[in-house]
Amino acid sequence: MAAFKERVFSGVQPTGNLHLGNYLGAIARFVPLQEKYDCIYCVVDMHAITMPPSVWGGPQELKRQIREVTAAFLAAGIDPKRHIVFNQSQVSEHAELAWICNCIARIGWLNRMTQFKEKAGKDRENASVGLYSYPTLMAADILVYRATHVPVGEDQKQHLELTRDVAQKFNNDFAESIAACGFGEAFFPLAEPLIQGPAMRIMSLRDGTKKMSKSDPSDNSRINLTDDADTIAQKIRKAKTDPEPLPSEEKGLEGRPEADNLVGIFAALKGVSRTDVLREFGGGQFSVFKAALIDLAVDRLGPLGAEMKRLVDDPAHIDAVLSDGADRARAIARPVMDAVKDITGFVRRG
Ligand code: AMP
Ligand code: TRP
Questions:
Q1: Residues designated catalytic
Q2: How far is the centre of ligand 2, averaged over its atoms, from the C-alpha of 45 (Å)?
Q3: 44 lines ligand 2 (CB under 6 A)
Q4: Fold of the 219-310 domain
Q5: 190 C-alpha vs ligand 1 centroid, how far in Å?
Q6: Fold: same for 7-200+315-344 and 219-310
Q7: Is ligand 2 within 6 A of the CB of residue 14?
Q8: Taking 90 as the threshold, does the pLDDT of residue 287 lie above it?
Q9: Cα 264 to Cα 115: distance, rounded to the nearest angstrom
């Protein structure tokens, strides 16, 4: 495969409050990648509207959430000057390439997507067409920058595989044209998922078998990034556990989803492994471990939440960051989209 310039792309939806899963599984991991790659971090507002407005709260709420996710990016330490931060709907090339991706992806591929099945629920006939084709818009997000690396939580793995399938099929279907247009053997890179570490799947605090999610009706199931110290403490104190003391080794966590989750959260917040955590707390009671987890969580999340609140109070600054990011994103996306048009055979203004 041809060598592609290395570039990171990832997206977060502006729907519902950001929680610890979004932070540890995604946003916190975006930060160190800035040292090694050119990074593009996107608030995927067009993905948000794949669910009905009653779910994401309507236009005013959408605006607020777009700014809040942007604030979380900045508060976590993403540098919008050295890298790119913007919201998806400001760069229309995403929607433009999504149409091509729709024509490349097969219905059978989309039918296998588990996230659609979960989100559509029982009444599948009533789901939006956008929810069904969500993964092809996600493929376009990545491909329109010819991104090579995509940091996400484990729940997005299947969507990334579909992105690779779309890229591969485009490269195959248009191989001759790609070569004739001067792009060699392949136009799109096959983006690699960056999924690793102890926090790829943070589970609900009320049920260790369900992932922590914005859509869980119980607010006690998740820690929101804007929760204050008392709320964080209360939620951790109430978190479900089992009657056994903590094991001393990682294999002792098997079959104990709640214990495994809390140990994983501790490990990710502290930047150590589960084994390290158990070396310290193994054999002890949950109450001792929970007290330490509360201190750690408040220590890490308190300043983050405060900085988010400060940033959200200055929407003009956030909006300026987004439009500057959108300009720089478009400067990359437009030539890619023009090349795709040439490769596909569309006639366009020279
Ligand atoms: P979303 O809010 O669905 O756009 O997700 C934004 C990012 O957070 C994606 O990379 C997800 O994989 C990640 N994410 C969401 N929920 C969790 C979770 N419970 N554990 C780990 N990562 C998560
Ligand atoms: N589908 C992702 C999620 O729900 C968000 C997303 C949209 C994304 N486009 C993307 C993630 C492109 C990575 C790359 O978490």
A1: 119, 211, 214
A2: 10
A3: yes
A4: Tyrosyl-Transfer RNA Synthetase (1.10.240)
A5: 21
A6: no
A7: no
A8: yes
A9: 23
Top CATH class of 7-200+315-344 equals alpha beta
Q: What tens digit of pLDDT does each residue of 198-210 get?
A: 667 899 999 999 9
Q: Which atom of ligand 2 is nearest to the CA of 9?
A: 14
Mean pLDDT value of segment 59-79? 97
Sheet holding 149-151, edge to edge: 84-87, 38-43, 7-12, 149-151, 192-194
Cα–Cα nearest to 130, from 110, 150, 149: 110
Alpha-carbon distances of 24 from 113, 140, 154, 326, 332, rounded to whole Å: 24, 25, 12, 26, 29
| Residue nearest atom 12 in ligand 1 by C-alpha distance | 153
Between the alpha carbon of residue 191 and those of residues 162, 233, 286, 345, the distances in Å are 10, 39, 41, 25
Looking at residue 233, what is its pLDDT? 97
349 vs 86 pLDDT, higher one:
86
- What is the value of pTM for the model shown? 0.94
Mean predicted confidence (pLDDT) in 309-318: 97
Domain residue spans of the chain? 7-200+315-344, 219-310
C-alpha distances (whole Å) from 177 to each of 106, 145, 335, 343 are 21, 20, 17, 5
